[in-house]
Specification:
870 residues; five-stranded antiparallel beta sheet; four-stranded mixed beta sheet; 24 strands
Length: 870
């Protein structure tokens, strides 16, 4: 019989005391340890325990216990650090859950470290906090202070260190103080010659900063634990005008920045980054662009180059800024689909040296046989780049050469985001030994026991140790592309947004990391590695995290790297239940098309839905005479095939009749298969992939008489249409499936160009199905509604029902809470508006939660055209 080691006994005592003395969540389960093992960097450190303190006092209690038991402490906000600053092997303190208080007083904000930047700015009235990294929708103020974040507008307002008036901090030995009234510390002397003179110097410690507050900003949690901050706010610009300048290449753009003055922001993007955008924006001629934001007189900027655009419309500005803000994700894929990594991410040189540096940097890439996508804060000489590193070979050598290059130009290894594990080991190439010794003395003045985030800046960890894809490679046999997909997430955390887009509706309800796209991706990665999550495909931790995934596919659209958690969930469920009994709802809802086909769902059986895993709060819809029995070929002209999906066919055939009448009215001969067909979606979403493949192959072969002749197949149910177009060809390599995918069109895309202008105006609230949002787009629907005299207000958020999800036991409360995020408030605010929802799930949720009567676009158009005939 084995006995616990002395270290194990110490850790057990530590965990026991944390639970007894710390007011907050104490998490040491495998799932939590896996979730916090990485940030947005290349590194992986599995923590022993995570706490989410509810009060500053709880932070103090936890740090005191950590000091007593010699457990290292890592402070963490949103975990978007890209240098490896926010993951550690001991105690991780997550401030983002509870310590989020914000108080605004004029041009000052008093905040706790977990407060999110966008939330601060939304409360600040006529003011804003100037630094605004691209992660502004989820990054915390504590994280910004730790990494000395900057963002696009630092050319105007400076780094975080220049915008913080006071810090309230805690040392490892339990002392708390304000930095404006600090006790005496034995701080080292320094030589000003050690420090390169540029605005974006973030590497090392700012010993030359004029105040202790500024010296401690950017210390990456290695000196003190931040409990609160007083922020200086700047007046919000009355208006913002975006001037986009086009250049032949990135060098010309970089050379140009010194000719621009007085701007709020000067950002550079490259052709390779733009190619990663789903819909290419309208940009001036060129292959590289500068985004120059000004308050007034845009012609002064635009006049400098003939290739320019001046954009006043805020919506258009936001669309272009999104390219820049999503850069950290978009740049993780090379134009040919290859992977690219952070590691040399934030180097900065004086702006007048940027063009020369870029040319030499590209030559350095070529010499090492590497490629990179560059973009960044050109106005301050700060360059972002993701590089197609082979992390197992040549990584160290490249970073050493890159460090020497940037230092030769009078630059800084890091222009924001700090050094972390990625760059701390290289500080000796930027600073002399005396400076490194001063850094060590500075840290030890506050943290003599080296408990706070050890291995960063002082006595650094090796830059090529702890690389997560090398430390935890997949050990569970699986498809190679699935293993690659699980590391597709780079941790930038856009899924932690609580406003805008569709992604992660369940996370927006629970605010639990395991319910975010990032959290689920990290758990799948750890599951495959088999280190912390040890049960492989049978893992209860992964199953629990995926249970609240709605399969909405919002992540496939909103995530900068196109993580498709719905597909990953289907794959996991397929393997998880292989050779085992499934949940009853998988048989009830997954096989719904079969039960309907054989008449086994009716008013009587619906009463027993609870025995099939259906939540008692929902009543199953009642089927009626199928569309395939009601609709016969009609109309003259070019043939189209109306696809009778299960939901339209059995539950709402009137929509199919309306669609057929519209199509015939617009000059088509409308045909329909005589037998029931199905795309296989319900089997796929419940992880029954073999059955889903057989179903879609059988359907595709049955429709070959049409698809083989190039007849368009018109889909009415967005989820089924999206499945046929995008998911089915990945599920099966049958040529008939490919032909069906190529032939499938949305109803709106087929009819919109043919619709006449209809007089009159009617306002409508439009709930776009999530799969349509992710896969199909809304442009054609918007055109069709506009032609029909409908003014749409589009709800950008999940309805919460999401196919089988909202019907399953245990999901009802989350389903309704999702609807309360966007859909139900929009309906309450527009009580007289028409309600349009093409998705069967969306209409069902609306009918369940309101007294409104949602309609499909086909019914709207049939009514407006006067062709309803039923």
């Amino acid at each position: 019989m084995s006995h616990p080691s002395g270290h194990d006994r110490v850790m057990r005592a530590f965990l026991d005391q944390l639970r007894r003395h710390v007011d907050g969540d104490v998490l040491d389960d495998p799932a939590s340890r896996a979730l916090y093992s990485a940030d947005a960097s290349n590194y992986r450190h599995v923590p022993r325990v995570i706490i989410r303190p509810r009060t500053p006092g709880a932070v103090g209690a936890a740090v005191a216990l950590a000091a007593e038991h010699r457990v290292p402490v890592t402070s963490r906000g949103a975990g978007t650090s890209i240098a490896g600053n926010a993951c550690g092997t001991g105690l991780v303190i997550d401030f983002s859950r509870y310590l989020t208080a914000i108080e605004i007083s004029g041009d000052r904000a008093f905040v706790q470290p977990g407060a999110v930047l966008d939330r601060v700015n939304s409360l600040a009235g006529d003011y804003v906090f100037g630094p605004d990294p691209s992660t502004h929708s989820r990054c915390t103020i504590g994280g910004m202070i730790g990494n000395n974040a900057c963002g696009a507008h630092s050319v105007k307002w400076g780094k975080t260190s220049e915008n913080v008036a006071n810090l309230h901090v805690l040392t490892a030995d339990g002392r708390t103080f304000d930095t404006t009234n600090a006790p005496a510390f034995d701080l080292p002397a320094y030589d000003p010659a050690w420090f390169p003179q540029l605005g974006r110097r973030v590497s090392g410690y700012a010993l030359d900063a004029p105040t202790l507050t500024q010296q401690l900003v950017g210390t990456e949690g290695t000196c003190v634990v931040v409990l609160g901050a007083e922020l200086k706010l700047v007046r919000r610009p009355e208006r913002r005008i975006l001037v986009v300048l086009g250049f032949a290449d990135t060098y010309a753009a970089a050379d140009h920045v010194t000719q621009i003055s007085g701007a709020l922001a000067v950002e550079g993007i490259d052709e390779a980054l733009v190619r990663g955008v789903r819909v290419r924006p309208d940009l001036p001629e060129g292959r590289s662009w500068l985004f120059v934001e000004v308050e007034d007189h845009p012609e002064r900027v635009a006049r400098i180059t003939k290739d320019s655009m001046i954009i006043h419309d805020p919506a258009h500005q936001r669309a272009l800024w999104r390219i820049r803000e999503d850069g950290a994700g978009l740049a993780t894929r090379m134009p040919d689909g290859g992977e690219a990594w952070s590691g040399w991410e934030d180097a900065a040189v004086p702006p007048e040296r940027l063009g020369t540096y870029l040319r030499e940097f590209d030559r350095l890439l070529a010499r090492h046989g590497r490629r990179g996508i560059t973009y960044g804060h050109y106005g301050e000489g700060c360059l972002h780049v993701r590089i197609d590193f082979d992390l197992a070979h040549g990584y160290r050598e490249f970073l050493q050469d890159a460090a020497d290059l940037v230092v030769s130009h009078g630059g800084s290894l890091s222009g924001e985001h700090g050094d972390g594990q990625a760059r701390s080991e290289l500080l000796g190439r930027m600073y002399p030994p005396a400076a490194l010794e001063a850094f060590r003395r500075f840290k030890h003045a506050f943290d003599p026991g080296d408990l706070l985030n050890p291995g960063r800046i002082v006595e650094p960890l090796k830059l090529d140790d702890d690389l997560r894809i090398l430390v935890a490679p997949p050990r569970i046999p699986t498809r190679a592309e699935f293993a690659a997909d699980t590391r597709r997430c780079v941790g930038v955390g856009k899924c932690l947004n609580t406003k805008g887009g569709v992604m992660c509706p369940s996370y927006r309800v629970t605010r639990e990391e395991k319910h975010s796209t990032r959290g689920r991706a990290h758990l799948l990665f750890e599951m495959l590695s088999g280190d912390v999550i040890k049960d492989g495909w049978r893992s209860p931790e992964v199953a629990g995290a995926l249970d609240l995934c709605l399969g909405c596919k919002g992540c496939k659209r909103d995530c900068p790297v196109d993580v498709d958690m719905a597909s990953y969930k289907a794959e996991f469920l397929h393997e998880h239940y292989k050779g085992r009994l499934r949940p009853r709802s998988h048989y009830a809802m997954g096989w719904l098309p079969t039960w309907l086909k054989y008449g086994l769902v009716n008013r009587f059986t619906a009463k027993f839905a609870r025995f099939a895993g259906i939540t008692p709060e929902r009543s199953l819809p009642v089927p009626t005479t199928p569309l395939v029995r009601q609709l016969h070929p009609l109309g003259e002209g070019d043939p189209v095939l109306l696809f009778p999906d299960t939901f339209t066919n059995f539950f709402e055939p009137g929509i199919g009749l309306d669609a057929a009448n519209v199509l015939a009215h617009l000059g088509n001969r409308v045909e329909i298969p005589s037998a029931n067909v199905c795309c296989g979606l319900t089997w796929h979403s419940t992880g029954q992939l073999g059955k889903a493949r057989r179903v879609v192959e059988r359907t595709a072969r049955a429709l070959l008489p049409w698809t083989g002749d190039g007849v368009p197949v018109i889909g009415l149910e967005p989820s089924c249409t999206a499945f046929l177009k995008t998911e089915a060809p990945k599920l099966s390599d049958d040529l008939a499936v490919r032909a069906l995918a190529d032939a499938t069109q949305t109803f709106a895309s087929h009819v919109a160009p043919k619709l006449p202008e209809v007089g009159g105006v009617r306002e409508a609230v439009v709930q776009t199905h999530c799969h349509q949002y992710a896969e199909l787009g809304f442009d054609a629907d918007h055109e069709a509604m506009t032609r029909a005299g409908i003014t749409p207000e589009v709800v950008e958020g999940c309805c919460g029902l999401a196919g089988n999800f909202g019907f399953e036991q245990g999901h009802y409360d989350v389903s309704i809470a999702c609807a309360e995020q966007d859909l139900l408030p929009a309906l309450r605010a527009n009580e007289d508006a028409l309600v349009i929802a093409d998705g069967f799930s969306c209409r069902t949720q609306i009918r369940h939660t309101t007294d409104r009567r949602p309609v499909h676009l086909a019914t709207v158009l049939a009514t407006r055209l006067g062709v309803i005939n039923r």
